[in-house]
Amino acid sequence: MNRTKNTTLNRRELLLTGLGLAIAPAEPPTLWLIGDSTVRNNTKGQQGWGSALPPLFDASTLKVTNKALGGRSSRTFLTEGLWDAVAKELKKGDTVVMQFGHNDGGDKFKGTRPRASLKGNGDDTEMGVVEATGKEEIVHSYGWYLRKYITEAKAKGATAVVCSPIPRNIWKDGKVGRAGNDYGKWAKEAAAQEKVHFLDLNTLIADRYEVLGEEKVAALFFGDHTHTSPDGAALNASIVAEGLKKLLKLL
């Protein structure tokens, strides 16, 4: 802010103060997180990286709001109305960080919890009847859902950041299994197509895990090979924060 604008604001503050009127502080922009249980987890002993992220930013300049929900895929976060709830509150200057993929496989229509998207980043669709609800639904690709979130965020004047899914604690020959040929690849393609930021968490975190080694990484997970413990969440959150600060030039 330049000196002239500061002077103008100071005069306005003096005027309002003299009139006995309070000045409401400007509301900081919001960093919205959407995703699955690896971002927000309510299971005892497990924690998503989104829950460990807020302390890594100055709350007076950036408000972190975690709207991720366990068990959701790129598809069901939309079909269950979770994205609409976020979109209604989005304002110019906000940022939406999205990370999906862990729940995007499996059944598309059968069973009690069909949530799969089509593989890839194309515009192909598949129509079917969801067995659990008896309702017909058009299913799109994983990339299509990401692109929908991106375009609707941009329409509100918000910035979008697409993340590849964090790696699981699965190793082979001393290396962490990666998603560079599937969800990580498709997430990158969706971001590039819409010309928005891409944060390759899959690679960044897998690289860090390999430096730590299998034994130490095992202690960062709880209950399975997908969900992190609070320590694992803290490590991943530090990598997310570092990446976002570089991409968005945040202090």
In summary, what is this structure?
The chain is α/β, with parallel strands linked by helices. The chain contains eight helices and nine strands. Mean pLDDT is 92; it is low at 1-9 and 12-17.
**Count of DSSP strands:** 9
**Class inferred from helices and paired strands:** alpha/beta
Principal-axis shape equals: globular
Q: Going across the biggest sheet, name each strand in turn.
A: 2-1-3-6-9
Element pattern in H and E:
HEEHHEEEHEEEHEHHH
Radius of gyration: 21 Å
Average pLDDT confidence is 92
Q: Quickly name the level 1 CATH class.
A: Alpha Beta
Descriptive notes:
- It contains 8 helices and 9 strands.
- 39% of the residues are buried.
- A 5-stranded parallel beta sheet has the order 2-1-3-6-9, sandwiched between helices. A two-stranded antiparallel ribbon has the order 4-5. A two-stranded antiparallel ribbon has the order 7-8.
- The protein is an alpha/beta fold.
- Helices cover 36% and strands 15% of the residues.
- The two termini are 16 Å apart.
- The protein has one domain: Rossmann fold.
Provide keyphrases for this structure.
single chain; 251 residues; alpha/beta; Rossmann fold; five-stranded parallel sheet; two-stranded antiparallel ribbon; 9 strands; globular; disordered N terminus
